[in-house]
Amino acid sequence: MDHQHVGRASHLPDGREIPGVANIGVNPTVDGITAPLLEVWLFDFDEDIYDQVIETDLIAFLRPEAKFDSLEIMTDQVMKDAQAARDLLMPDIG
User: Fold this and answer.
1) pTM recorded for the entire structure
2) Does residue 75 sit within a domain?
3) Diameter of the chain by CA atoms?
4) DSSP annotation of 48
5) Ramachandran region, residue 79 (left: φ > 0; alpha: ψ -120 to 50; beta: rest)
6) CATH value at residue 38
7) Domain count for the chain
8) How far is residue 49's CA from residue 46's CA, in Å, rounded to a whole number?
9) What does each C-alpha distance from 1 to 4, 37, 55, 66 come to in angstroms?
10) Tens-digit pLDDT profile for residues 33-88
11) Are 93 and 86 in contact (CB under 8 A)?
């Protein structure tokens, strides 16, 4: 189940829902990561929520996980994924 998804973190301690993009997988481009992780990038969010429980809704499938030839190529794809997620979740803002 290694995929990129459009996500939304909901049920923050104050009840806000924040749009973002999520990856479920092992990140095959980065050596040493072998256990599947859920990584969520919350858009336009710069607060400390470490050690807090949040819930993430997976809204749409973007693409299967892939191994990239370099971190630069991976970063370019992540930015494209983020824009696709913004377009779906925030069409008036993009």
Assistant:
1) 0.79
2) yes
3) 40
4) -
5) alpha
6) 2.40.30.30
7) 1
8) 9
9) 10, 11, 18, 12
10) 678 888 889 999 999 998 988 888 888 888 988 889 999 999 999 999 999 999 98
11) yes
pLDDT, residue 27, reads: 75
- Domain of 57 in residue numbering reads as 3-89
Q: Is the dihedral of CA 7, 12, 14, 15 positive or negative?
A: positive
The pLDDT of residue 79 = 93
Give the phi and the psi of residue 34 in degrees, each rounded to 5. -120, -20
Domain contains 94:
no
pLDDT per position as a tens digit, 19-33: 989 888 887 777 766
Structure tokens given for 26: 């092992």
Angstrom CA distances, 2 to 11, 14, 59, 71, 80, stand at 24, 30, 15, 18, 18
Strands (E) across 1-94 are located at 3-10, 18-25, 37-42, 55-64
Identify the pLDDT of residue 39. 86
